[in-house]
Write a structure and sequence with these properties.
This protein is α/β, with parallel strands linked by helices. The protein folds into 2 domains: about 300 residues, Aminopeptidase; about 140 residues, Aminopeptidase i, Domain 2, CATH 2.30.250.10. It is about 30% helix and about 25% strand. The strands form 3 sheets. Strands 1-2-3-13-4-14-18-16-17 form a 9-stranded mixed β-sheet, with helices on both faces. Strands 8-7-10-5-6-9 form a 6-stranded antiparallel β-sheet. The chain has a 5-stranded mixed β-sheet with strand order 11-12-20-19-15. About 45% of the residues are buried. The protein binds manganese (II) ion (2 copies).
Amino acid sequence: MMERKNIWLKYNKKELKEVDSLSNRYRAFLDAGKTERECVEYSEQALIKAGFRKLDHILKKGEKLQPGDKVYAVNMKKAIIAFVIGKTPMEQGMNILGAHIDSPRLDIKQNPMYEDTELVYLDTHYYGGVKKYQWTAIPLAIHGVVAKKDGSVVKVVIGEEETDPIVYISDLLIHLSQKQLEKKGNVVVEGEDLNILIGSKPLKGKEKDAVKENILALLKEKYDIEEEDFISAELEVVPAGKARECGLDRSMIAAYGHDDRICAYTSLEAILEEENPERTACCILVDKEEIGSVGATGMQSKFFENIVCEIMNACGEYSEISMRRAMRNSCMLSSDVSAAFDPIYASVFEKNNAAYFAKGLVLNKYTGARGKSGSNDANAEYLGKIRKVFDDAGVAFQTAELGKVDAGGGGTIAYILSLYGMEVIDSGVALLSMHAPWELASKADIYEAKKGYKAFLKSMK
Ligand code: MN
Ligand code: MN
């Protein structure tokens, strides 16, 4: 009874086509969105195309919101929230999908550039949990913005076009690695050694730091930026290249940033297709999850609450108590990736409570570590309701823990929303090689995730 079948076996021709077309759209999203800013830009364009209007414009005009209206709000270009106003008053609660759009990467420091033995480097500080040794000797790209003193913001993307150069972190040759390979994995490559090699050609006629001078001249020419401008820049070093189909059967997608753009994109598609819901539908795509949901653009900021207040006000139903009721009566799927069972590393999983490729959307009743610490432990009654919503809509799902008890653990944004007293559960798509430069997902699970999110927006109450 409890055995969950491989979902590839149940798809008909039409569904198999849909699985592929969704995964193609998702790959386009990944290729366009390698930073939180790029994901916000892409999502905003998609929302506008689907008839969503910017909340700022509605507020400026003093317009009222009606059931069926579609609105969105952007937070500092790094987070975005979309709503489809429901028929029932917001006080009775919303159905909320939440996912994060920041991914582990290497951030360039504020004073990054130096020359050493006629090689020029950019110094980095890694962002989120990474196995540092995985970032050496692979093609890397630089994405981000440089804010200049005159107020202009220069966008930078280097390393994605076939004709672009890539950048690179060198690794020690195996021939001289005897000592290095005796080190523990976490110090084989150290954080301070993640320096990006960006040049090796000196500028003619310069005596000191001639290679650096040459790079600075190139930056001036191409982007009109100076060395000082790095102070006010956000440049992220990410794996170069496009998301790819994986496996001879093309059943998987290998890509940078599945965590958590895989849940973000499927949630986005779910709200894009939402029309005239009973309860107000909401999709939150948020920044900074990988470093603890901190700051003005992370889930801990008041942005979401503030926007809910604005929306309720524009619906003509705002009061402090109504807003609190709206939060308390809401239901949320906090969507984030899960670890897929990996036969090569079977010892860290407990087989009966692990997630598997091609078994559908994962529900994690709890996350956390060392006795569920740091977890949002979803209520049994809420899980019962979700099972019904998914089963009624034919959504394939599985339940899982991240790994064996005391093998490790992780957190999500779930606990933050649960502070409002709303029902929240962790859900998401299972990955192999989570947090690696290239992560792996099953196309079938992506398809079930979107189906699950749509069913949740439509039927949860
Ligand atoms: Mn995540
Ligand atoms: Mn993560």
